[in-house]
Write a structure and sequence with these properties.
By secondary structure, this protein is an alpha/beta fold. The chain is about 35% helix and about 25% strand. The chain folds into two domains: about 130 residues, Periplasmic binding protein-like II (D-Maltodextrin-Binding Protein, domain 2, 3-Layer(aba) Sandwich), CATH 3.40.190.10; about 120 residues, 3-Layer(aba) Sandwich (D-Maltodextrin-Binding Protein, domain 2), CATH 3.40.190.10. The longest helix is centred in the first third of the chain and has 16 residues.
Length: about 250
């Protein structure tokens, strides 16, 4: 017992004098896979070095992450859609309870197979394709080939933003292929010559040559951390750091 007390006192003394490093705080954030793969995971080591906070990430979707806050399971989440859209989705009044901390902005781009000659589409054409009104690439200046619409799952913020800004909230055609993540969407479009998807520009940049970007109007959205009330001190440090130019050097 005396030995235990002496050892405990010795270790405590080392910690308080700075001879041994204090253990890093540990927080977990769930939600957007775009924020996960483009922001938090690439910057993980830099975040811990700058703030002393280790951030663990569970990539689910922006909607599922925010739902955890609403259900009282978390005080914060990560999202790639505006807070206003999430509040509207879950029919929650915007009374200031929930805060949006924008880290950076992201651009969503339509993607096709590298063999597809189509290089530009209007919002109307994209809408008509994704709703099933246009089913062959020849109708938009491409090859005589069936269009395969590929999209993220219904909880995806990328899908929600694209559906709102481009499709004017119209539903996807029934035959659209749904995938669980943006990375899988890129993979599937690269396998189907007639494939069409819509993903974050960052995922295209991370997979050079795998798919082609189709030129269209800008589809922009925020990448953010959402909190219930003010963030606690540890998360506050992380958010403040992520907004710096130094942190942005690590983003994908």
């Amino acid at each position: 017992m005396i030995k235990y007390i002496l050892r405990f006192g010795f270790i405590t003394a080392l910690l308080t004098t700075g001879i041994l490093p204090a253990m890093a705080a540990d927080i977990t954030l769930s939600g957007s896979t775009t924020v996960q793969k483009r922001v938090l995971e690439p910057a993980a080591e830099a975040i811990q070095a700058a703030t002393g906070v280790k951030v663990r990430v569970r990539g689910t979707s922006s909607g599922k992450g925010f739902k955890e806050i609403l259900d009282g399971k978390a005080m914060a989440s990560i999202a790639s859609s505006p807070l206003a859209s999430l509040l509207s989705k879950y029919k929650v009044e915007d009374d200031g309870t929930y805060q949006e901390h924008v880290i950076t902005r992201d651009v969503i781009v339509p993607i096709v197979h590298p063999a597809n000659s189509v290089s530009e589409l209007t919002f109307q054409q994209l809408s008509d394709i994704n709703t099933g009104k246009i089913t062959n690439w020849k109708d938009v200046g491409g090859p005589d080939m069936k269009i395969v619409v590929i999209t993220s799952s219904k909880g995806s913020a990328t899908r929600s933003v694209f559906q709102k800004l481009v499709m004017k909230k119209q539903p996807y055609l029934k035959g659209a292929r749904e995938v669980k993540s943006t990375r899988k969407e890129v993979d599937l479009v690269s396998k189907f010559k007639g494939g069409l998807g819509a993903v974050s520009q960052g995922f295209v940049d991370a997979n050079p040559g795998k798919v082609n970007v189709v030129k269209t109007g800008e589809i922009s959205r925020p990448l953010c951390v959402i909190t219930k009330g003010n963030p606690d001190s540890e998360l506050g440090k992380v958010i403040a750091y992520l907004k710096t130019d130094q942190a942005k050097k690590h983003f994908k």
